[in-house]
């Protein structure tokens, strides 16, 4: 029960809920600069949770993961994305989903689904963070939902990055982090992905004069 | 017997303080916007002026139009009695739970919408239609937030919920955090504050509440205005007492009640400041964006409910 836990473990659970909330905020947000800000906040909360889990479990290598998450997910990637958005001059465009209300409701349904799926897994674990497995799975699936529901490239990249946040969070919650080598590899991948996405934004815009990737579905430029 | 007297006394204080709370919110808003604010007693003067004025009514007004102000004022008064104010153990709070509270609000809103359509002016019908659209989304969000509370405390009675939360001390509950956010958004929508409706204007094409009461005058208008101020106060007290229950009187002794009144006053002053700051920071949104706003409130309440089930029970 929650009442019997020490305060910092309650804080872990509260932060986990905040991560879920930022995922929903990302789904609801239609302007691009606030979207990147929310993504940065999500990275910050994930980093803070990782540090708390490190304190809780006594595994000090998790502190490195926390610092890595802080530098990469809360600072570098948001900074890079924001710079790109301003250089592309799309910071005032609408980047929202077509039916925001339906998407939010679908998100809520996904959380329930994740809870249902994660329940058998949670019974094998006794750590305090076992309850957050469902939360991290939902963050992953909400990231996928964001990828599916948005048509602008920048919003899709933010969705992809938030999906990666969910995976990282799942690793921290379920097994107290991945092996350091894997974690460094993933972090490096994310870094490279962010840079390559940046290059691709310019390429996509050069070839179809827009960042609306739905237009890539058409074979010709003629309106049908 | 003493309980009931105390309860009645608190209700009278509640009703009398409601215009003062609105005036306080307005004053903070004026400070933030670098304007000179009206006196804190201005709402009382307005009410006195309206009560002494003659009632002018359209010839075609039906009895519904005539009784609606009394029904609204009565239902809001009953709603105020249900909410624990300075002390928790009120007999009036014990006999009704939070679903009854939502019911009183719904009753008042139903008659308000009927009266808006009664005269047959374009504005009235428009206002009624908008009000019903918003409330159809706000009410489930409010009930969902309330159910989160009831799941935490295993009761829908407000007194029991508050006592339960007080008894367990400081526990960080993600579910309550989300319920608080959701209830704040719902409260803003239901009391017609700024991102949803503008309480400061009378003639605007986007108005909701004012459109319905355009035809009212004299004491009828005074009752409705008072009920609006009371409703704002009810939401403020609800949020202050449920989520920050510290200081509320749990016994009937004089010292406990004095402490309860003092802390409640501080909480209301702070909450009014937060509301005014919010109204200054955000612009009124388009009517068609309101549904997204309220679905966000509903989603927040839903996350609260889910995080209680996922994180807190297992």
Structure report:
The complex is a heterodimer of chains A (224) and B (314). Chain A has 224 residues and is mainly alpha-helical. Chain A has seven helices and no strands. In chain A, helix 1 packs parallel to helix 5 and helix 3 packs parallel to helix 7. The longest helix of chain A has 29 residues. Chain A starts with 6 loop residues before the first helix and ends in a 16-residue tail after the last helix. Chain B has 314 residues and is an all-alpha fold. Chain B is globular and about 60 Å long. Chain B has one domain. In chain B, helix 6 runs parallel beside helix 12. Chains A and B meet through helix 1, helix 4 and helix 5 of A and helix 8 and helix 12 of B.
In short:
With 224 residues, chain A is mostly helical. Chain A has helices at 7-28, 32-57, 61-88, 100-122, 132-149, 153-175, 180-208. Chain A has one domain (2-216).
Mean pLDDT of chain A, to the nearest integer, reads 85
Q: Which structural class best describes the helix and strand composition of chain B?
A: mainly alpha
What is the overall shape of chain A? globular
Number of domains of chain A: 1
Low-pLDDT residue intervals, each spanning 5 or more residues of chain A: none
Rg over CA atoms of chain B: 19 Å
Write the layout of secondary structure elements.
The complex is a heterodimer of chains A (224) and B (314).
Chain A: H1 7-28, H2 32-57, H3 61-88, H4 100-122, H5 132-149, H6 153-175, H7 180-208
Chain B: H1 2-32, H2 42-52, H3 63-82, H4 91-94, H5 98-118, H6 122-153, H7 158-167, H8 174-190, H9 209-212, H10 218-243, H11 254-281, H12 290-313
Give keywords.
heterodimer; A: 224 residues; mainly alpha; B: 314 residues; 12 helices; globular
